Amino acid sequence: MISQSLGHPVSFIRRRRKRDFRLRGNDAWGMIGLLFLLLHSPVMAQTALPPAPYADRQLDDPALEAKARDLMVTIRCLTCQSQSIADSNASMAGDMRSEIRQRIAAGERPEHIRAWLIERYGDWVSYAPTAAPILWPLWAAPLVLLALGGLLVRSRIRRRKR
Amino acid sequence: MKRALIWLPLLLFLAFFGLFASGLLKPDNRIIASRLVGQPLPAFSLPAAASDRPALASAQFATGKPRLLNIFASWCIPCAAEAPQLMALKQAGVEIDAIAIRDARPDVDRFLARYGNPYTRIGLDARSAVQMALGSSGVPETFVIDGKGKIVHQHVGDIREDDVAGILKILRDAR
Fold first, then answer.
1. Which of A1, A101, A108, A125 to mutate to test the interface with B (most CBs of B within 10 A)?
2. Could you tell me the pLDDT band of residue B111, with boundaries at 50, 70 and 90?
3. Which ranges of chain A does DSSP label H, i.e. alpha helix?
4. Closest chain B residue to A102 measured between Cα atoms?
């Protein structure tokens, strides 16, 4: 979060510079810009380590991979807080994907892993709605809307009969 | 009845408008606190992250004296910014252990040589596994662990100068 956010402004500035050069159409400046980009690429690195073994590698068994995938798209990334860990490029999201794939491969149930994460980060970390009282209106909404629709249809039919 | 119903869409609109406006105007809180505060430190055992400091295991925390557990990384800039405050805490007699996240020993050595080494023991968490087990969501973070090995406080983000007194007080209360 706080630390990783430092990566983003840098990339923003770099993108802006690149575009400015292109607008001027000056090749020499473009080359200098390119050199600048190459020289400064380590600034972007969040960490020198290669990614965790299963961060960007699928499990060999497609059934297990599907299980892991279904869980990963519903786990929220702690760094880029509006993305799931399946969508995020943050190092921590990669570590979480690797952890989840390894646990699934070891036979752990997806819902058990989700519960383990919620125990640590709260409901916040999961995109799947729970049965907590605060969400009861959400679960009740379809029933309430269906009932309202039923009432509406009934009154219409009655009116037509008359 | 019918007459009153005609106002319903407007009322619904105003209700939703108010809801969205309050959501937009409320300051964004991006801090995710660990749910493990108040609970015992999860069990872990990590290899040494630095050449001149021993490895770190959860069993080493129940020493009868409160300690700090600092989550840091050599690649993390706010971690360098909080180094003077950690040094000040160390000088005040606080024992500080650390976990280096997604790090490598040469990098940790270089970081400690440059910014100072306030740590007693440093564990290396190369794949963030222990970070996840702690409910920590980034670097730097600092946990206060009491003498029985229970987590009593989590400080998210770098420790600023004006945080030091508060942390010392929490450590005193954890005795």
1. A1
2. very high
3. 7-24, 27-44, 62-72, 91-105, 110-121, 136-161
4. B129
Dig out the tokens for B103 from the structure: 């790090």
Q: How confident is the model at residue B27 (pLDDT cuts 50, 70, 90)?
A: confident
| Domains of chain B, each with CATH number or no CATH | 45-173 (3.40.30.10)
Contact (Cβ atoms closer than 8 angstroms) between residue A5 and residue A44? no
- In this structure, are strands B141-145 and B67-72 parallel, antiparallel, or unpaired? antiparallel
User: Is residue A155 over pLDDT 90?
Assistant: yes
Per DSSP (E only), the strands in chain B are 45-46, 56-57, 67-72, 96-101, 122-125, 141-145, 151-156
**What is the rounded CA–CA span in Å between residue A75 and residue A84?**
5
A63 contacts A77 by C-beta, under 8 angstroms: no
CB contact under 8 A, B102 and A91: yes
**Domain topology for A62-128:** Helicase, Ruva Protein; domain 3 (1.10.8)
Shortest alpha-carbon distance between residue A117 and chain B (Å): 8
pLDDT in tens, B47-74: 999 999 999 999 999 889 999 999 999 9
**Which residues in chain B are contacts of A91 at CB distance < 8 A?**
102, 128
CB nearest to B73's CB, from A6, A47, A121? A47
Quick: pLDDT tens for A22-52.
444 456 666 666 555 555 444 444 556 778 8
